[in-house]
Structures are given as structure tokens and as C-alpha cells.
Amino acid sequence: MDQSVKFNLDLINRYDKSGPRYTSYPTALELHDGFSEQDYTQQIALSNARGGPLSLYFHIPFCDTVCYYCACNKIITKNREHAEPYLANLFKEIQLQGALFDSKRVVNQLHWGGGTPTFLDYGQMHRLMAAARQHFNLKEDDTGEYSIEIDPRATDDKTISQLRELGFNRISLGVQDFDPAVQQAVNRIQSEAQTFAVLEAARKEGFRSTSIDLIYGLPLQTVTSFSVTLDKILSVSPDRFSIFNYAHLPARFKTQRQINEKDMPSAEVKLDILQMIIRRLLEAGYVYIGMDHFAKPDDELAIAQRENKLYRNFQGYSTHSDCDLIGLGITSIGRVADSYVQNVKELAAYNVLISKGELPVFKGFVLNAEDQLRRAVITQLICHFSLSFSDIERIYNIDFKHYFSSELSALKIMRDDGLLVMNDDGIQVLAVGRLLIRNICMIFDAYLKSNTEQFSKVI
């Protein structure tokens, strides 16, 4: 498989618009409060009947400082004791959900996100993992994909050793930018020494994969300054990069209002930074996975993409398309059987439902046959940059060209612009079209409204 990507400024400007990131289809905007606990338990029963492995996501919402760019659901506090009531409820939810899933189903994938999961001390983390092992069938042979998001400011050698002992074998380190002025502007002061010490400790402890998170488009960033940050990260050669485009939406996210608008880089500068990023990472031997992700050619993500096994879920790209995903903790979203389900977002509501022995269901969505068909099309495109009409026809019993005649007609403009190739067999997205894969997927989105401003820009 060709895993290259090309930057074409003219096409990027022409297709510059907002659109979904397709961590799910339909997107989370379609989840509704008409979905009940009973609806969820029905989907769990269907999931058990189908069988297969599981994936667990735990949301740890606590941070001890606020990063002004953050759009996550978080609770800012320096007191670790504030996590105790939340953990008590989370343990009860683990018990409630664990009792509903077939205990023989193995957990192939586990992820702690936030917030800052390493806000928890070792005793708290140990109790949380013990609860997961008690109520779900976690692997004991280190073959699962058990990952955690790391803030190097809240982590040291001892923490890394403890995380490895608990069963984690993959870490993602938040960096964003090393430039002191940028760090000051977004209230995330983090030294290179802190970051690289954690990375080195993870390698010594035998973590199988290390990923670095960066953000471009932050205040005061320039091509030159971000290139310096990239130089420093490339010198330690992480397995993966996640390099996100900062979406400045202060009307929606209160903390972003603390960013000085005058310091924001222009759209032209952001594109120049992106072009530099792509060139530098490709020169360094990384391949473009899609969206904001790059990986070494021998990384499991890159291999899964070449083998047509890559998947996309609420945590991003994944190698475990066969897993039903169970979300645990406030605001978490799962995908079980034919549904998506989201937990309540507030601590008070979470506490009320858990104290009554009820699942903390907030919203959900049950996919119908057409939703599943369109999800399969979008997933293939966004993960593999290609689509076989015959594969879809065989699984969903349709005539692709007849069923999607209007969509194929709409794609002709993108074909003529050189984003993709279409023939009787299928669609192949070209290197120049891969940065615009969200635009291509949007053609197949039956829910997309004309007003897409609730989404981030595609580039």
C-alpha cells in the first residue's frame, strides 16, 4: 500500500471547510436522550450473543492545572483526595457493567484518558486496575494493547515503573510545544528534560509503543519555532506522532477565552506549519496514517493499515476493529453491538445514578441498516484511503453504483481535481487527497447539515 501524502496548497484552500473527524458514524452529535438504560442493556445482550473481544475506556477527568487550549471534560484541582468519591463511583460502575458482559470475553484493548490519568497516585491506580481485573477478563500475558495518556509534568521514573507493573504497555505523552513563549501563552509549562526522562523511562521499562502529542495553531507559533520543537522530538524517535490542528472555539470552551486572540497565527501560517510538519516527518521515515497521525513503518498502526485491518473509534485510529468498546466514567462514549452510548457529563448526576445502582446513561444512538452501511463506507475510506465496491456489495447486499449514485456523481468534482480515482471497481484516494479525506467522507454522510460550524476545520 502507498502510504504517502502530498501537500497541495491550492486544493487545501479550495476545500477549506469544517467537518466531522469521524471517530464515529453517525457522529456523537446524533446521540439523543431518548436512549435509555434498557436500550443499552438490550444492546449488551446482542453484543454477548455475537461474542468477540472487548475494549475498555476509562475517563479520568482530573488535572492539577488548566491548559488554556483544552476542550476536554476536566476538573481542575491539586488535591488528589478529590478523586476518591469519583473513583468509588467508578468502581461501582465497573461492577455494574462487568456483570452485564459475558465474563469469557477477553479485553484486548484498554485505555485510560482524561483529563490526566496520572493525576491519580499509585494506590488509586492500583485499585482501579484491580477493579477492572475483578469484573472483566483482562489479559495477563502482556499481549493486550493497554495504553494510558501521560502528562510528563505529573510523571516520573517511579510512576512509569508502576504503570508497567499494572499492565500498561503503551503510552502517549502530551507535549504540544516546547517553545517557552507558546507554553506561557497556553499555561502549559513543561521542560524538555521532564518529557524525555519519561520517554526514556518508558523504553527502559519495556513499553512497546511511545506516542507524542503536538498541537499546531497555538498562539505565538511560527514555522521556525515549531520546527525547533519538531527537531527535539525527532531526536528521540517516538513510534507515533499525533499532531493536532488547534480549533479555537472560545464561545464553546470557556478556558480558551484566556488565550489572547491577537497572538493566534493566521490561517496561512498554520498551513505553512502543517506543510513543514508533513515534509519533515516523511523525510524522517514516518508514514501518514491519516488525519493527524504519523507512525514508523513497522508500527502496528502502519502495519494494520497496509493489511486493511485499521479501524477508527472514539480514541482515534485503532488496530482492534473486532472489539466492542465500553466507556466507563463521566462523559465517556462506548460502541456496543449496534449502538453508541454516552455517560452523563457531570459528577453530581453520575453520583445520583450510581448510588441508585443504575447505569449512568446520558445519551445514545442505535444504528439502523443504512447507518451501518454508510459507516462501513466511511470507515474504509478514512482508514485505508480506498473502497472496494464489491466488498460492500457482498456484505450489505446492494448495488453500490445504484445505491450511491448521487454520492458518486458528487465525487466527480474531487476526481477531476485529482483527489481520487474512481472506476468500476471502487475508489482510490490519491496522495494529494489524503489530507482532505474528511471532505471525501462527508459526501457519504446522510446526517450532515449545511451548517457544519460545530465541527473543526478539515485542515
UniProtKB/TrEMBL annotation:
CDD domains: Radical_SAM. Binds 1 [4Fe-4S] cluster. The cluster is coordinated with 3 cysteines and an exchangeable S-adenosyl-L-methionine. [4Fe-4S] cluster binds at C63, C67, C70. InterPro entries: Coprogen_oxidase_HemN, Coproporphyrinogen-III_oxidase, Elp3/MiaA/NifB-like_rSAM, HemN_C, rSAM, rSAM_sf. It catalyses: coproporphyrinogen III + 2 S-adenosyl-L-methionine = protoporphyrinogen IX + 2 5'-deoxyadenosine + 2 L-methionine + 2 CO2. GO terms for biological process: protoporphyrinogen IX biosynthetic process. Its EC number is 1.3.98.3. The keyword 4Fe-4S applies. It comes from the Bacteria. Monomer. This is Coproporphyrinogen-III oxidase.
